[in-house]
Design brief:
Elements (H helix, E strand, L loop, with lengths): L16 H5 L10 H6 L10 H11 L16 E2 L5 E2 L9 H13 L3 H4 L2 E3 L4 H5 L2 H12 L8 E8 L2 E8 L13 E5 L11 H15 L5 H5 L3 E2 L12 H15 L20 H37 L8
Helix pairs in contact: 4-10, 4-11, 7-8
Pfam families: Peptidase_C48 (PF02902)
Protein name: Ubiquitin-like protease family profile domain-containing protein
Family: Belongs to the peptidase C48 family.
């Protein structure tokens, strides 16, 4: 069902963003409405004209994607807690990011130094002309040319695959470290090769925005390698496969990747279903524990604030 957007008052009477939009304002992040919301942190009243000016000024540079980007449908439980969808289900970008954070932090800081990853929404947003420039600006801040490997989760046509930039900071003339791209897909029938034109345009734009000296023709010839990897059995497993690809790749990636040694460890028998199940169970358990700790802390802070507001301070036993 399409969300109905409530219209602001039609007169010039003062109103607060908090009073008008209520709790729904908390769902907006880094968009024009978020900017408007900053005006109400001290319950400041603004006029309809002021509200419209904020929207007019920022709606193009800071558009709102709440209705266009897939988000997790959260199930409310007692105490304001939320349930994270199980990893075996089809993952939306928000849920994927929760699990990705667990995978990432399972490795030591020293291990992570050679890697980085892009937000799972960025490739999808890059495909839209209205947000392309902003995405390229975000990527520039990640300093991907200083990393050996860059994970780019790709979600297109409701299917997850994994793009990996390899040694982008090295010369194409190197004999031991080959700049290349890997595209891992757990569903060959999805025809991963059809993404190549958009991937190559994506890479060309990244090099251009970074001000790299490489010739455009050289960049266009960066190899795109598609290894034969284990295939999913169900329709909704692609997200968990991508997470496991990332987990294993971080464990076994060589310090120097050369296309002459491709595909290295990436083959159809790379891992079995039992090891994948173990990974899924571990990830769900760790994320559940993390959410429980956060919920407990949040509840504790809220209780303390409530008690102070009532002139009472509770001490732990």
């Amino acid at each position: 069902m399409r969300r109905r957007t409530r219209k602001p008052p039609s007169n010039e009477f003062d109103f607060t963003i908090a009073g008008f939009f209520g709790d729904s304002i908390s769902k907006h992040r880094s968009c024009w409405l978020h900017i408007a919301a900053a005006q109400y942190k001290i319950e400041k009243k603004i006029t309809l004209t002021e509200f419209k000016e904020i929207k007019k000024k920022f709606k193009h540079t800071s558009p709102c994607f709440l209705d266009t980007c897939p988000r997790a449908k959260r199930t409310k439980l007692m105490g304001g807690h939320h349930v994270i969808p199980r990893i075996r289900k089809k993952l939306d970008t928000e849920t994927f990011e929760h699990y990705m954070e667990v995978v990432w932090k399972s490795f030591s800081e020293e291990k992570r130094m050679s890697f980085t990853y892009l937000d799972s929404l960025w490739f999808s947003l890059y495909r839209k002309a209205s947000t392309r420039t902003k995405v390229l600006t975000w990527i520039k801040k990640k300093s991907i040319f200083s990393k050996d490997y860059v994970f780019v989760p790709v979600c297109c046509w409701s299917h997850w695959s994994l793009l990996i930039f390899v040694h982008f900071g090295d010369s194409s003339d190197s004999k031991t470290r080959t700049p290349c791209m890997l595209l891992l897909d757990s569903l060959e029938n999805a025809e991963p090769k059809r993404l190549e034109p958009e991937i190559r345009k994506f890479v060309q734009d990244i090099y251009r925005v970074e001000g790299r000296e490489e010739d455009r023709n050289v960049v266009s010839k960066i190899p795109l390698l598609i290894p034969k990897v284990p295939q999913q059995r169900g329709d909704e497993e692609c997200g968990s496969y991508v997470l496991y690809f990332i987990n294993l790749f971080m464990q076994f990636a060589p310090e120097n990747f050369c296309d002459s040694d491709f595909p290295y460890f990436m083959h159809k028998d790379w891992f079995d279903l039992e090891s994948l199940e173990y990974f899924r169970n571990r990830l769900e358990k760790e994320l559940s524990s993390k959410v429980a700790v956060r919920s407990k802390h949040s509840s504790s802070v809220s209780q303390q604030k409530l008690c102070k507001n009532n002139g009472v301070i509770l001490l732990d036993d």
